[in-house]
Design a protein that fits this description.
With 471 residues, this protein is an alpha/beta fold. The chain contains 18 helices and 20 strands. Helix content is 39%, strand content 21%. The structure holds adenosine-5'-diphosphate and 6-deoxy-beta-L-fructofuranose (LRH). Pfam families: FGGY_C, FGGY_N.
Length: 471
């Protein structure tokens, strides 16, 4: 038996709808819609165009529903962002995590609770954009006073499709408001002055919410009455489901961000993990995603955008080719430095980074691209060594999934700098993880994560990169 399902996968730069046929030994995907996602800056900050995303996504679902009976639909997106509601209506336009109000949010949280104490509660890497920091700014601005509910973005879409308000567990784990044992941290919320009744019931990936309601089906022309399911709605949680790894495998979920780490049976919120800036995010089936956010291809895509705005005609493939031909040593910077979070002129920020430290910056576009990729690869190597040391889990191979699996130079540099074989693919791991967990809930796919990963291995072409030197 196979099931036909649709994944709505929202990335920070683009969204897609993927229709899939999944069975015990079948995994066929077909992208039926792809749309741009560009945050928009208005007076009070940077926001996501959530209605445009919802519209494009649901039109994609309608397309997917036309030539096959669609059993279910599920949404994943980037983490941490949310909408505030009152009596079921969205209040205002959700902010983007790249809005610079988050730095102030971090200070507001710091004033209430010290970082080691917070880490012991939620186990998250200190990052300015975590939900908890954003909420403290909302609170200061009086926005929480009007709200009676908070929904993470995939849950907001689920609510619009079904009328049910829930919080899916993996994405809830990125808020900073969930304890390591999986319960909402109402005590912390009390300390921060955030009303716990804003939160909803937590559901596990695989939970059936309800069919897409009649109003929505009629508005978008969706055929049949597909169920909306919860899956690993944090995109990285879905991506990790589809990493074709075996024991000894680590992963880099490589797109706008690079999420570098391993799967562990339980959280590791030790002083060492805190020192090395590791996060413990909730995975599907109660696993822990013990990983570090090592910035990502964001730096490269912003650099290319900056150059193109200044008249550069070369696109990413040509720039990568030029960078691959650089056969001299280039310097490396720390890609996790917060100066690289906001949108802007990355070549200039990289130059300033080196000059502030009295070092020679890279010169020319090829050298800058090479420097970005070498810096990311070095960041991955250090992170993987830390993950192995802190967890006691040996790492023998590294899997790269997401758009970055297409970047052959980055994959090769990662092999060189880690001294490990890199296995690249699948590119669409997030959508695959999304559809696999749906199909499993429908009884059409194998039960264990190990079997689901074996299905990915058996149905996708993967490319290996071996270390050329160094280690
Ligand atoms: P997200 O889901 O975060 O939006 P993706 O997983 O779609 O990100 O990855 C997008 C990134 O993949 C781009 O920023 C780009 O650097 C990289 N990428 C996509 N296609 C290619 C390609 N053909 N060659 C090299 N890199 C690519
Ligand atoms: C990747 C991602 C990542 C988070 C960031 C906000 O898309 O979800 O896991 O750290 O976006």
């Amino acid at each position: 038996m196979t099931a036909t399902v649709a994944a709505i996968d929202l990335g920070a730069t683009s969204g897609r709808v993927v229709k899939a046929e999944v069975g015990p030994s079948t995994l066929r995907l077909d992208e039926v819609a792809r749309f741009e996602n560009r945050p928009v800056k208005i007076g009070d900050g940077l926001h996501w165009s959530v209605l445009a995303l919802y519209d494009a996504a649901l039109q994609g679902v309608a397309t997917a529903s036309r030539d096959a009976s669609l059993a279910s639909v599920a949404v994943d997106s980037w983490a941490v962002d949310y909408g505030l509601l009152r009596r079921g209506s969205l209040l205002g336009i959700p902010f983007s995590y790249r809005d610079d109000r988050t730095a102030h949010g971090l200070e507001l949280v710091d004033a209430v609770i010290a970082q080691p104490e917070l880490y012991a509660r939620c186990g998250l890497q200190r990052m300015p954009f975590t939900t908890i920091n954003q909420l403290m700014v909302d609170r200061e601005r009086g926005l929480l006073e009007a709200a009676d509910r908070l929904l993470m973005l995939p849950d907001l879409f689920g609510y619009w499709m079904t009328g049910r308000m829930v919080t899916e567990r993996t994405n809830a784990s990125t808020t900073g408001l969930m304890r390591l044992d999986g319960a909402w941290d109402t005590e912390l919320m009390g300390m921060l002055g955030i009303d716990p009744t804003l939160l909803s019931e937590v559901v596990e990936p695989g939970t059936r919410l309800a069919p897409i309601n009649a109003v929505t089906r009629a508005h978008f022309g969706i055929e049949g009455a597909p169920d909306v399911l919860a899956i690993g709605s944090h995109d990285t949680a879905s991506a990790v489901v589809a990493v074709p790894m075996e024991p000894g495998g680590a992963y880099i979920s490589s797109g706008t961000w690079s999420l570098v780490g391993i799967e562990t049976p339980a959280p590791i919120a030790t002083a060492e993990a805190l020192d090395a800036s590791f996060t413990n995010e909730g995975g599907v089936d109660g696993r822990t995603r013990f990983l570090k956010n090592v910035m990502g291809l964001w730096i490269l895509s912003e650099a290319v955008r900056t150059w193109q705005a200044a008249g550069e005609r070369l696109g990413l493939p040509e720039l990568l080719e030029a960078a691959a031909a650089v056969d001299w040593a280039v310097p490396v910077f720390d890609p996790t430095d917060a100066v690289f979070y906001p949108p802007g002129d990355m070549p200039e920020r990289i130059r300033a980074w080196f000059e502030e430290r009295g070092q020679r910056p890279p010169r020319g576009r090829a050298e800058v691209v090479r420097c970005i990729l070498e810096s990311l690869a070095e960041g991955y190597a250090v992170t993987l060594r830390d993950a192995a040391r802190i967890s006691g889990q040996a790492i023998e191979r590294v899997h790269v999934v997401g758009g970055g699996a297409r970047n052959a130079l980055l994959c090769q540099l990662t092999a060189d700098r880690t001294g490990l074989t890199v296995v690249a693919g699948p590119v669409e791991a997030t959508a695959i993880g999304n559809v696999l967990v749906q199909a499993r809930a429908l009884g059409a796919a194998p039960e264990s994560l190990e079997e689901l990963r074996a299905l990915v291995r058996a149905t996708h072409e993967l490319r290996e990169y071996r270390p050329r030197h160094r280690a």
